[in-house]
Design a protein that fits this description.
The protein is an alpha+beta fold. It is built from five helices and twelve strands. About 5% of the residues have low confidence.
Length: about 230
């Protein structure tokens, strides 16, 4: 576990925290680092995405994220592809599962084509979902709990410059106009931005947020990456 963060002490972890999500439960902010795929760089061939979820101060790993999508699906559907993603702890045990159902052209066109991420526990218990909303100018997602009720909305900028700055997607509680958190695409450097579609993100969670809702915002981050930053370099 040299590069991994040590598990938090039990007294810091809420008593109802699902197994394996102890790190997520106690972190007010996390960094997400997408790993470089040399297959994509050298062969211009879409590869399964891999990410590391990092402690924002030490950069030690909290979790890793791996995509499991067939080669043909990646080639034909590119960033619009349906996919399965597993969030793993340091023992390679799955602690969260994210599914992206197929939509005819995720993120474009009419409302039935809007993107969706479904987040569940490894045993299949639904935690909630993230659904892109149809909007003319401002990118918008709704975060829904297991009952289908909207708990957050996420709004991105109508225009942004990727150069040397963060691209903010602000988190708002349902019915509120005051920002309570943020998912921000971070600048990765000129070489990576120009030559790859590798992206880094920062998630600042709302205060005292339940770990299950943090898991939903994690799913929202991957939806934003696929819709707005994958293959956009």
């Amino acid at each position: 576990m040299q590069d991994w963060m040590q598990p938090p002490s039990p007294e810091r972890v809420p008593t109802n925290c699902p197994p394996g999500l102890e790190h997520l439960a106690v972190m007010p902010e996390i960094f997400i680092h997408q790993k470089i795929s040399w297959v994509e760089i050298c062969c211009d061939w879409e590869a399964n995405q891999q990410y590391e979820i990092l402690h924002p101060e030490t950069n030690k790993r909290l979790y890793k994220v791996v995509e499991d999508t067939s080669c043909c699906t990646r080639a034909w559907c590119a960033e619009s592809r349906p996919l399965e993603m597993s969030i793993l702890d340091y023992t390679e045990k799955e602690v969260l599962h994210i599914s992206r159902p197929f939509h005819c052209a995720s993120g474009t066109g009419c409302p039935p084509c809007m993107d969706e991420m479904v987040i569940s526990t490894p045993d299949g218990k639904l935690l909630g979902s993230v659904k892109q909303q149809f909007a003319w100018l401002i990118p918008r997602h709704h975060v829904l709990d297991a009952s289908g009720d909207v708990v957050f909305r996420i709004e991105g900028p109508c225009w942004y410059c990727r150069c040397c700055s963060e691209v903010p997607f602000k988190i708002y509680a349902r019915g509120e106009s005051q920002e309570v958190g943020i998912i921000a695409k971070r600048w990765t450097g000129t070489a990576k931005e120009c030559c790859t579609d590798v992206d880094n993100f920062r998630i600042a969670f709302p205060n005292n947020l339940d770990v299950r809702l943090k898991a939903l915002l994690l799913g929202a981050c991957f939806s934003i990456d696929l819709l707005f930053f994958e293959n956009r370099g």
